[in-house]
Amino acid sequence: MQLSLLDRARTRAGEPDAAALTGTVARAARAEQLGYDRFWVAEHHGVPGVAGSAPAVLLAAIAGRTTTVRLGSAGVMLPHHQPLVVAEQFATLSALAPGRVDLGLGRSPGFTAPVRRALRSTGEHDFAGDLAELRAFLTGSAEITAYPRPPAAVPMYVLATGQGLQVAAQLGLPVIVGGPLLGVAGDPEPGLAALAGYRRDHRPSEQAPEPRVAISLDVLVADSAADATDLLLPEAWAMAQARTTGAFPPLEPVADIRTRTLSPRQQQYVEQTTAAAIAGTPAQVASRLAELLERTGAAELVASSSTHDRAALAVSDAALADLLGRQRAAP
Asked: Could you give the angle at the alpha carbon of 20 between the alpha carbons of 185 and 111, nearest 5°?
């Protein structure tokens, strides 16, 4: 099984946004040293808690600090871009980091109505058609040739919900699934049925002769279950604020959050986010991951973890790598 990190360049209260980006680059360099197979970054627009708005630019910076770890977008949101432009960006990345670049693609239209207007999102989008067109540019089979021509193929992945799984199966593409589809905090049966449908309907392609599933969720490892819960709290609190105020804020220190009086709805959302994660001691995390991986048949774990304390996050990343038997690079 492959092991990856997904870093959304989360901002921290009291820090400039640039610190989130430099922190992401530094985390990617550490991930390479820890033996992670892949490092993913994401695309968000107009979100105060996320500095990661330009995956191709951020991946270029990471490529300059790494030499072996694979680099991917999870993902580029196709409703915001022309397929040719995406192909050119990732062909350029592949030319700079041959054989290391992966292109994950999603179809989120934008976080809020003002963001959608700023992105010129019409609400009408042919995701399957754009994926097919993009693949044609990357493989050199389109009406025009995208330059630079990459020295190695740029694999495509689909960030999949129920409908996205169907599209990925039709096009013979690997999928990255997370959240409710995994059933970590609820009924797993609908998600398992959707994954079974993807595997059943998958049409073999040159990139993916067989269906391939990666799973993405928060995974945090600490010395005690209580410490792991503290690591989860900043992200859970941000999610609670997003759902009750409409704004997804920077991460706050645990001590500051503990002084707050949460409304019943906010407490409910904190508990939901915590339940959807896998966090605890190494033994606890290993047990839950083994069950989830057996249930989903996943080929890759994408740990999308974040917390306010960067040092504690680095310790968790190292513990997860050790847990799954990664080989650390020589210093």
From this structure: 55
Burial track 307-330 (b if 16+ CB lie within 10 A, e otherwise): bbbbebbbbbbbbbbebbebeeee
pLDDT digits (tens, 9 = 90+) for 273-291: 999 999 999 999 999 999 9
Token pair recorded at residue 205: 């392609």
Token duo for residue 108: 């989120």
φ, ψ for residue 303, nearest 5 deg: -85, 110
Distance separating alpha carbons of residues 288 and 277, to the nearest angstrom: 10
92 CB-near residues (< 8 Å, 6+ apart): 56, 148
Domain boundaries, the chain: 2-219+302-323, 220-301
| In the block, residue with structure tokens 């595997």 | 199
pLDDT digit string, tens, across residues 189-209: 888 899 999 999 999 999 999
Question: Among residues 36, 207, 236, which one has the least CA distance to residue 105?
Answer: 207
Report the distance separating Cα 49 and Cα 46, nearest Å.
Answer: 9
Is the domain spanning 2-219+302-323 CATH 3.40.190.10? The answer is: no
